[in-house]
Structure formats: C-alpha cells, structure tokens
# Entry
Amino acid sequence: MSVLTQYKNHRLHWIGFGIIAIIFLLVLPNVLSIFQLNILGKFLTFAIVAVGLDLIWGYTGMLSLGQGLFFGLGAYCFGMYLNLEAAGNKLPDFMSLYGVFELPALWEPFRSPVIAIALAILFPAFIAFLVGFMLFRSRIQGVYFAIVTQALTAIVALLLVGQQKLINGTNGLTEMKTIFGMPLAEDSTKVMLYLATVIVLGGVYLSGRWLVHSRFGRLLIAVREDEERLRFAGYNPVFIKTLIFTISAGVAGLAGALFIPQVGIISPAQLDIQSSIEIVIWVAVGGRGTLIGAVFGAILVNFGKSTISSEYPDIWQFIMGALFIGVVMYFPKGLVGTIQGWLKPNTSDLVDKPSVSSATFSNKTESALGN
Amino acid sequence: MKKKKNIEKILDVQKLTVSFDNFKVLDNLDFYINHGELRFLIGPNGAGKTTLLDIITSKTKPSSGKVMFNEDIDITHWQEHKLVRHGIARKFQTPSIFPGMTVYENLEVAAGFNLSKFKLFQSISAEERDHIGDVLETIGLADLRNRDANILSHGQKQWLEIGMLLMQRPKLLLLDEPVAGMSRAERDRTGELLQSISRDQAILVVEHDMLFVRQFASIVTVLHQGKLLREGKVEDIQNDSKVVEVYLGRGHKETA
# Structure
C-alpha cells in the first residue's frame, strides 16, 4: 500500500466516521421513538463490549469467554450506586427483606457515582489482570484460555446467586429510580443516556483504532500469528497479552455501567456463559479483526434477534443459530471482512515477484548492522 | 581463563548432556565458537544438532552441563526474550514470520524489542526506520517492503526471517537449515548473505546440504550420536574416513 492510498484511506475513514456519528447523534434521536432509541442504546452498549472482545480475540487471537462476566460486573458496580441513590438515606429494599439493617462495608464506596463508575471499569480490569497474568505466565493458550475464562464466568455467576443478603442473589439489582437526580423513566433522561452511550462507543472505537494501528497493535497481531516467533524476537508476550486482556475487560465493564441505567436490571442470569458466547457471535458475524465489524455485528445480530424473536417466538433460536453457522461457514471473515475483501484488489495478482536472479544483496551490510 | 580483553569465545557449551528416557541425545558435549566466526554444524539425522540449538535457546532443558555466552555469562535456562536482549538470535527451520503483516511491519516488530513499554505506543524513530531500510537492502527485499509477507516465495520468507534477526543487532546468530527447500540460485544468495554478515557477528549454521556446506563453510563441526566427532577445515572434514563412515554407513566403508 503506497503512502498515498494510506492517506486516502485515512481520510475516507474520518469522513465515514463523521457521517455515522451525525446519523447516531442527530438523525436517529429525531427519527426513532423513545422506546426504539432506548433499545438501540442497549445494543450500543453491546457494541462497546464487542469492540473490547475484538481487541483480544480478533486482533490478539485469544478467545475470551469472560467478556459477559466483565460486562456484568461493570453493571453490578454502577447498579449498586443506582440502588443507593434510589434508597436515599435508607438501605436498598431487598436488604430489609433478608434482615440486613446496616449497609455492608462492600457497598460503602458505591455511594459516590465517580467511584462507582471508576470501579465498574477497574474492578473487571483488575480481575482480568490477575487471571490473565497467571494464565499467560504459565503459557496457557488457545482453547485452554477459552475454557478457563468460561469457568471463571460460571464460578462468579454461581457466587453471585449465593449472595442473597449482599446483592440480592438470583433476583439481581432492580431498584433504580434516578441517575444523578434525573428520573430514569423520563424521556429526556433516556435520550441523554443514549447520547452518552453513542459518545462512549465513539471514544472506545477511536481509542481501539489508535491502539491497533500503533506499534503495540502490530505486536497484538504478532501474538495471534506466531507467539513463539515474537518471543524469539525479544518480546515477553505475557506483558502484551495481560495488557490487552485487562483493557478489554475494562471496556466491557464500562459498557455494563452504561447498560444498567438503560435497562434497569442486572442479575446473575445475565453474567451467564451464554451471554459471553453471544458476544463472540456478534464479533464473528460482524467480522473479526475489524473494529467496525464488531460494532455493526453487535447491532445487527441484536436487531435480528429482537425482530425474529417477536415474529417467531418458538423457533427464533434455531434461526439465529443457522444464521451464525451460515456466516461462519460461508463468510469466515464476517460481514465487514468480506466486504473489505471485495473492495480491496486481489493483491496476489498485482505482485511483481522479482525472480531470484534479479534480487540483489547490496553491500550495505555494515551500515545495516550498525556498530 | 583468559583475561577480559582477550575474550574469544562468544559461545561455550560445557559438558552438556541431554537425555530423553535414558537415551542421550547429547552426550557430555564440549563445543565453542569464537567471535565473528561462521561455523557450520553438520551430522547425520539424530546427531543432536537441532537439540543443541534448543538447549542454547532454552527450548529444551539440559540434564547436566551449561552454556556460557561471552565467556562469563551463564545463559542456561534463560527465557527467550532475555536471550534476544543479550544478543542471541535464532532462525527456525521452517520460515517463521508474521504472514499477515507487510515485510516492513515484520521488521518493525523485530526492531522494537529493546524499547521501553511506553515507547511501543509511539511512532517509529527515524533511526529505526533507517535501520529497517538498510536491512531491507541487505536481504534484498526493499522492493517488496509494503507487500504482505504471506505472498513471498519460500526463499524470500527465509531472508525476511534472517532480516528480522539482523534487526536485533545480534552478537550470535543461530540458523537451523536456512537453505532447506531453496532453489540453487536462492542457496547461493543465502550463502553470500551469510558470509557478508558474518563479519560482524558469529553465526552458527546447522545444515544438511553438503554442497552448500562445501561451498560456503570454512570451519565445520561434525556431531554424531550426541558427541563431537570431528572439527576442522571443510576440505579435511570431507575426506575424513570417520565422517564418511557415519554419513554413508559402515557397509559403504567395507566395500570401499
């Protein structure tokens, strides 16, 4: 790719980004009903998680089945703040049901919205850091990494179910009335939450894009393509993998914090393995290794899911499953990856492979080797 | 022990034994290479050549013995990235590059290993870019710098990997059968490349192709059943009756 086409692609990207931003920020809020906008806002929080998964799976090649967990933990963190805001000076209602009359120490930090949001990002990130560091240091890779993250998800979901007095067990957190003093039921609050989600998604997308285009981004791809070579190139992949796993978990937690005020409930059921696998499906359908694919995969699959499930409530899961299998079999690069393949000229035809005899080794050896 | 200023040995393998299930792949092996030397390591299948490279790069653990680098650094059991940072670079038997990246990006990854973690998020320095340009010239892939590495021919991939090693400015290069699967013309290019870069660093080449060895080697070490069989000039080695025997088998000698 020449510098010129790279520059053109860069400019095209910003134009496309601008158009999509205008559609989501200015057009859709005026076209859609509040109900539809609220649902779209929920889908956009899913898109944020999908970008996080794409960083670790699409780019770095590690299938994490823990993103649903990190998303849920973020939702719980911010949900605890919303609970306390709804309860005012009293305790959340469910506590008195179980005979708890003093606010547990765990809840204290969540009185502050700033700390709650910070923890929604940092707590999942911290878990990912710990688990990731231990796994990657022991060189646990591939399917074993997927299995361990899946097991982690199952363990935490079970743990939450057992904690009735602390966080209302199976029922999850539901009592939410206001956010920063604004009633959640108000249309204006819903529009604001939607807009906040759009802006965060834009920010996460641009940061992710910057990351994958940086030198560090090339190392992520190097981990995916040949981790051993990367080790023999003088890098310690433990650092690279732990960092990207931590980032993807933080992004998922942030998405969870945006999810909870728009949906109003978070329960252990939503941290289930199934939700983690669904995130994988969004990214696979949209296109692994393309951040925009992750975004549109999440929106499209969820849109399809809600449409199909209301039209064909009995068989929608089969239809979704068939769609997923179809995409993986016939469009392994996902929708965006396939379209990009069409747009990009076939490079193998263009290659002017020089014959060996014309390849020349220059005598610049000394300078190439430096001192 | 020689004095510091007289350091000769870049790599010194001492009394190295490696056994798998009581079978000794390397048997009390002593072996060394001097600075700036281009050394060829040959031997029949199962002689322990690749195992020796695996020991030097910590892929396999020795049963006993140690590996010294620059005479006084014990590098036995070191992690790969630490070895690279001290100047040991290894090329694998099959070309091992990052196929989804361009030729330039492959070298850029190889260039950054010594950077602080913070610098990995910044753009590449002019000095590094010049270095990449020089290496591209050296390995003859300058015209293909912006092509995806997976479209390169087998020989070009091997050169790219050697280029990635050169980016590390290594003191010792370990190459495992670098010309396997190459055409004759590609072999000649590779031989010239190795001779030209060996002026600046020691190179240890494990090789099967005797024609290639005869053409480009000066000092050859022959391994047999985990032991050092012979070491010396290539002309002497190829006429050595013992070497002929292990390569062609006992029967050959008797009938000869």
In short: Strands of chain B lie at 9-20, 23-34, 38-42, 64-69, 73-74, 88-91, 172-176, 202-206, 219-224, 227-233. Chain B has ten helices and ten strands.
